[in-house]
Amino acid sequence: MMERRRMDAALLVLFLVQLTTALEVPLDLLEGLPQPPTITHQSPKDYIIDPRENIIIHCEAKGKPHPSFSWTRNGTHFDIDEDPNVTMKPHSGTMVVDISRAKAEHYESVYQCTSRNKHGTAVSNNIVVQQSRSPLWSKEKLKAMVVQEGVSMVLPCRPPAGLPPPIIFWMDNNFQRLPQSSRVSQSLNGDLYFSNVLREDSRNDYICYARFPYTQTIQQKQPISVKVLNMDAINDTMAAFYNETDLFSEEPADERKPTFLIPSGPSSSKMVLRGQVLEMECIAEGLPTPEVSWIKVSGDLPAKRTFFLHYQKTLRIVNVSESDAGDYRCTARNRLGSVHHTIKVNVKAAPYWISGAPRNLVLAPGESGVLTCRASGTPKPLVTWAMNGIPIENSPKDLSRKVEDDTIIFTDVQTGSSAVFQCNVSNDYGYLLSNAFVNVLSETPRVLTPSNKVYQVIKNHPALIDCASFGSPIPKITWFKDSRSSTLDGDPYIVHDNGTLEIHVAQARNSGKYTCVARNTLGNYENHVYLEVKEPTRILKQPEYKVVQRGRSVVFECKVKHDSSLIPTMTWLKDDGELPDDERLIVDSDSLAISDVTENDAGVYTCIMNTTLDHDSASAELTVVEATPTPAVAYERPDPPTDLELTDQKKRSVQLTWTPGDEHNSPIQKFLIQFEDSLHHRGHWHNLTEVPGSKTTAHLKLSPYMHYTFRVLALNAVNFSRPSFPSRMFKTEPAGTDLIPPYLPPLTGLQSNGPGLHYRVMWRQKLMDSDWTTVTVANNSKFVVSGTPTFVPYELRVQAVNEQGAAAEPQTAIGFSGEDLPVAAPENVQAMLLNSTLAKVHWEPVPARSIRGHLKGYRVYYWRDRSLHKHNPHHAEKQILTFSGNHTHGMLPGLHPFSLYSFNVRLYNGKGEGPPSPTQQFETPEGVPGPPTSLLVTNPNLDSLTLEWSPPHDRNGHITGYTLKYQPVNDSNELGPLEELALPANETSVTVFSLKYSTRYKFYLNAITVSGAGPAISQEAVTIMDEALISQHEVDVATGNTQTSHPIAPSPPRRPPHKAQPASPFKNISSSFVEDGTLISWEYWGPERNVYVEYIVKNSEGEEEWQKELVNGSQNVTLKGLKGGLSYRVRLVAQGHHDQPLHHSEELVVSVPAVASRQVDIATQGWFIGLMCAIALLILILLIICFIQRNKGGKYPGE
């Protein structure tokens, strides 16, 4: 019976879900619409505060009327008015505690915020407020540790418990991190483990530090002293250390197999929560040092979530899931053996949503609905419900409401039953609390889309027209166009569930006025909007590839056609970045001009034409070559100066004179004076000063405490001369240093001014008003300050001191402590498509506190997942674009149209890259297709030809059809009138009729998508001469007799990509008859350049030789020596080097007609016309003579 009731309830829930969906509307946009409270912002459940700052506990909510707020503290009402230190922000529930007059620890409690109005009550999570703590280390006296060389050792840290726990690290007295290795490493609890000790481990400054992140304070443990002895040293020093130290071993430490220091025993167990980080460690001792490895006994380690730390001793798995439960085995191994330890991992789970938190319901009176609170966890969580903050079992009974486990079913709701329901899902490891209201409203329809809004869209692109509405019951949307003669609910219109009207492929005829009508039982509301379909933007003349000499000028043209009502903007890019800020680059409305070209101008230039609706782009490459060099005149370098003399000698200056050497036809431009300091840097020459070539004297200012020797070099247009001979030595006396370094420079005699040079290095954290820390540094040019927080500004001072005294007070410089990897990824990452090959990525800058270093820039990782066309292959090659500086957007050029792309954005600083933003995807729209893959001409007849083709390799969208254009070509290669045919997308062949016989035609075929026509592939062919040849002209190939196809005209074919070369380099051999002979055509793929045609009479005797005709570089030849009425065997031959074999084609049998292929019309011949004229004239003369004779006969008797 119970099972039957559960099944009925489940069916009822399914029925209600199908009938009613939650009405998600922007309620804040509707004035006067009642709404129960909704909490919009609250502090985290575990809220750790800084005891030095005011406590702010957030609680923000919305509702109509605006809700009021109250708080509970440790489960009881907290009267804020009674506490003078606590205030609440106006129109908000956010509570502020002023700690200037009270201690923060007095306010450590569990708080809960309640927000209510007359329609319901919402509650926040339980907010546990705790102050961060950084306690001091307890005082302890640490004994020195004496250990025998080779044994294991553990140095305990045991830091004080803080909130949150501190970060542990080991350093020495000089704030230098102690080196760690596979032999020495730090455990997860902070102790320092030695698998075996060495003599060099002896030191008296093993110091454990604890850094507390909230207060940015560092606590230091007392130093631990360690002395490592071998057996001889133990015998000598036993008495000295026995009373004051602990002796760990008396036996010599021999090599031994590994044993585990932690964990103990052969196995252990560990529990971890789902979504958290699992860390397991195995630290072993042994000699030699053991190596540690890990496996998962019950499966494989998750590759992308597994990390090995501390020299393989720690296994870390991030974002733990239930599949990570099982047995893990660590193995420690050296050459003497191995040891294993098995850790059984149990994964538990705090409650988590399966299909999201419950969603708000807006219902009309009499309607039904469902609130679902579906969550999971381990162990299975308990689901409880409350209404307006009161357990639902204690709330007033309501027959329209029924609770079924994690579901509340509402049937036939009535006005006044609005409320906020709380769903609480909990188990031993946590809880989830969610508010969802049921708002019972009776509202006439309203359309939220602005009236008379104008939508603009590009022709052949989808159009989406909004009709966002609200009403209770939910309105039904109906669309009309212009005259409202009929509803728009069929092709090409699609009405979506949210009321949006979609036109998949917008055309000019779709422009006009559209009306959407929202109806429910309470009334209707109509709204008018307008759609304008614009012509697409297209680049008519693209920039062309240019090769230009350095110093010349170059112009890239980019002429565009666009809709006249849209305002275009031309943008030029260089190598996908902004154009350099250089006055040599002049951008015009349709061109880019570069004058005085340099090598740096080489690259790819892209013009982008933008309108408010669409874009188009095209690119061209500029290659810069050197101008023809002119031969340089040969010169020689000058001779070295001579006769160096020192005069006018003073404490810290001297005058140097010299005599110049021979210039060798190139005037001396300057003299370089160098010196050697034999006191500090014997054998090293340094540049001191330069003087013009017209001078031979220099007054030299010198430094104290130096032993100077000088030399001079002369420079002309060729090079420097050899150095002169050195001058005599000149010594300066010591003096106090005058160096005021802003940083630590190298120690040089020139800067020391005297013996005993060292530095006082001082630093303190900026803005902390703390004392200066001072150290003395000698014989070094740098000092590392360790133990500092990440990337914090410090004030730095460096003062030079020698035995004569200190330099002047140093300047203060600002420096930063070490960088670390960024901890945050850019947020609100979005991609905006500019056209089918260009996208713009936007992101919000990472907050300064998360950069943790000098901001270098952002990197966008993007890759093509696949083409959206099923015929195109998969692509996944990752590309990276770097945008230096604090950018918030970047362009992704060179995209493939009609493709699915994924991308993410990362910040990088001087240390490296931070985490990636969540990977997002976008689809590029359709673009123009590539040219068809192939175009072949077959079945030539007297007045027709058949064309066969393959679709484009790069379809870049859905092929909507093909355009075939053709025109005749005469013997002078002049083109005749152009004819055009439109072909459907599913056709791959067509027969063209009504052609002229014996005429050469050129055909152009291109494919079309919604974005337009792609580039064309062209081919030429010739119709045959006469009907008589159709029956006479047969080609006998090796496989049998077939009707010949007319050859393609002599444009050299391109080799298809990614196809293997055939065994014979000749393909598609054919023949036809022309006026002056027989035309043989072919395609050739071989490397040889010596190609010729051989032919012989078919039934000739064996002694007859083949006739040859050389056809190098051509793809056809006309054989004029073939006799009519005979059949010939024809073949093609390719000849390489003399030691390489010949390549023969298959033989072709050609039968030459015995009768001329074209009958001569004698009536049109000149001699025949002249003959006929002569005969007619002769007959006329004879007729005249006869007529005369007849008249004479009438005079005889008988008249």
Keywords:
about 1200 residues; 94 strands; mainly beta; disordered C terminus; seven-stranded antiparallel β-sheet; 10 domains; disordered N terminus; Immunoglobulin-like
How would you portray this structure in words?
- The N terminus and C terminus are likely disordered.
- The protein has ten domains: 97 residues, Immunoglobulins (Immunoglobulin-like), CATH 2.60.40; 91 residues, Immunoglobulin-like (Sandwich); 97 residues, Immunoglobulins (Immunoglobulin-like), CATH 2.60.40.10; 86 residues, Immunoglobulins (Immunoglobulin-like), CATH 2.60.40; 92 residues, Immunoglobulin-like (Sandwich), CATH 2.60.40; 87 residues, Immunoglobulins (Immunoglobulin-like), CATH 2.60.40; 92 residues, Immunoglobulins (Immunoglobulin-like, Sandwich); 51 residues, Immunoglobulin-like; and more.
- The strands form 25 sheets. Strands 85, 86, 89, 90, 92, 93 and 94 form a seven-stranded antiparallel β-sheet that branches. Strands 2, 5, 6, 9, 10 and 11 form a six-stranded mixed β-sheet that branches.
- A hairpin with a 2-residue loop joins strand 52 and strand 53.
- The chain starts with a helix and ends in a 7-residue tail after the last helix.
- It has 1199 residues and is mostly beta strands.
- The chain is 6% helix and 46% strand.
